[in-house]
């Protein structure tokens, strides 16, 4: 759907858990879109200290316009705060505020706020409504869509969480104007990912439009977000709880989570680690004879063109492998990896030779 | 199903989440029953300091017999430990032990351990298998069946949790031998509840067999457990996530939770509070003209015969009402109560006059 005011909408067809994703400018002021999604009760609007000064008041005013009680909770910013303790703070706000089962948690921020507030919404009273108001590119194209919520554990990322679909996603593209360049590029990593795993044509499109995307030109940006959401929604509808095909969305993530863990959470942005991880996955696919030299070079070039890292720091390969072993994608102790049979066609593989992996981890490293 | 060795089994038909409940003596030693339920991975066996000395080694040995790695975690006993902090300890054990997605959390204990370990199983890696090994009557007839998991919050009971069905329930009736009389009676409260809300014939049966049940005679006890599980399973299959009919299972619980909260968690056993709550619900039903004097007297008599309280302490009625207001059964700020149209027929009501309720709360009180 495409309307004159720049609003584009798509539906994630999950039966009784179906919901709409709206993408466009000025959505945080569009009370009618909010009202369409929300259940009848009060709203807890959760944000962080970086995003709140820009958009909290706008979102709050729009929500208040629907006649609901709206309370706000502003948490510290950053991946290091995506913890069980912060989850406890959101739940405390809900319980102390005597929010009932028909309430809604609205997550205004990036992936951390969405995952954290989302897990609180999943768990409070065994599940209340969640409205995603993503304000980063990464959250708009990835983390706000699909129902994965979680917090980190010192042992690994996203180890504690739930599948909990939102009642709606409103991606206000105006909010991307204030996004720091590094965060913006991190979001592009997930956009590139969709092309790599599912859609070679979209990958071509990205190669042509990367300069415009880096300038945040409204039309190509909205197009990139909508196409990313469409691709993600298609996979989520096929496999909501990641028993199979949904694992493809983790291209670069097993490598990436290991980079994040070894570097110390918060040092690398998630999207940056995924970017380097995708190059590692492409390199592995190349060494397995699946991806030719030219395709591998295209991956590396596109990642670099987005301003993203194409290699990881100088971590010991054995340490990386160990860190990858704790990734959730491991089943029964065997390491499963998402690799590329071709550009636009990903597969899950569980029998990559250890020596080949160590070779990749040893070679795809940034000079330190 | 009824076999010579006393094993009785029933199936909770929840599609891809279907599972078996086994009831009978010596089940903790029956490796083949465990193996039937379990996925392929490691097991974290969670218990408490009261139950562990009696049954942990038996359960551990049986689980080890299946060739799996089995780790144990023993938590302090009691409702006061059903907290987010204890939940964190179970998750810590899973993460530090590097348990993978195909692992299983086995909950050996009463309702607290089942709810707590159950919520950890629901949340670790966004959901791993849960095996219920209930060792109290209450857990065997109620909390281990139906997939509700939760921890308490200072503001209210079970405010943080998930719906997460177990892969199996093994109710070893031998474990009831060591159950203190007060805990045993608390379990009978939930048994009586099933008769009151769903099955007048079962209620008759209970009136006749209460002396034998109090002596823990094996045959009537197994019969009471199996019939309770059958009744609960029927409701859960109709309404897994409590959008409607499942609320009937909360007869006496809104009153009961208020009693527990005002008395201070841990003072009253859950079943004791539910027992008094059921008498209050019956009294309310009587004053609404639904339950005649004789039926009300039967409820009070049966509850008393089980050694359970038929009234609450001398709390101020207004304080009780306020505590009931935070109960999860409240929708949009309106108090919904489960009441009895007749013995064996419960309904959810949302328009009980406040004055009538205050009258009941004022009258159904224990002399202090």
Could you explain how this protein is built, in words?
The structure is a homodimer of 368-residue chains. Chain A has 368 residues and is of the alpha/beta class. Chain A folds into 2 domains: 8-178, Rossmann fold; 181-363, Dehydroquinate synthase-like, alpha domain. The first copy, chain A, contains 13 helices and 11 strands. Chain A has helices at 31-37, 52-64, 84-96, 111-123, 137-143, 181-198, 200-214, 218-238, 253-263, 270-287, 293-305, 317-325, 354-363, and strands at residues 8-12, 19-24, 43-48, 70-75, 104-109, 129-134, 148-153, 156-163, 168-172, 337-342, 345-349. Chain A has a 7-stranded mixed sheet with strand order 1-2-9-6-5-3-4, sandwiched between helices. The first copy, chain A, has a two-stranded antiparallel sheet with strand order 7-8. A two-stranded antiparallel sheet of chain A has the order 10-11. In chain A, strand 1 (8-12) and strand 2 (19-24) form a beta hairpin. In chain A, helix 5 (137-143) packs parallel to helix 6 (181-198), helix 6 (181-198) runs parallel beside helix 10 (270-287) and helix 7 runs antiparallel to helix 8 (218-238). The interface between A and B is large, with 39 and 39 residues.
- Main beta sheet strand tally, sense and closure of chain A: 7 strands, mixed
Count the domains of chain A. Answer: 2
Question: Can you identify the CATH superfamily of the largest domain in chain A?
Answer: Dehydroquinate synthase-like - alpha domain
Report strand order across the widest sheet of chain A. 1-2-9-6-5-3-4
Number of strands of chain A: 11
Q: Based on the structure given, which CATH architecture of the largest domain in chain A is correct?
A: Up-down Bundle
Estimate what percentage of residues of chain A fall within beta strands: 15-25%
Structural class of chain A: alpha/beta
Order of helices and strands of chain A: EEHEHEHEHEHEEEHHHHHHHEEH
Assembly state of the chains shown: homodimer
CATH topology of the largest domain in chain A: Dehydroquinate synthase-like, alpha domain
Largest interface: A-B, 39 and 39 residues
Give helix % range of chain A: 40-55%
> What's the CATH class label of the largest domain in chain A?
Mainly Alpha
> What is the overall number of helices of chain A?
13
Cα gyration radius of chain A (Å): 20 Å
* Arithmetic mean pLDDT of chain A: 93
**Span between termini of chain A:** 48 Å
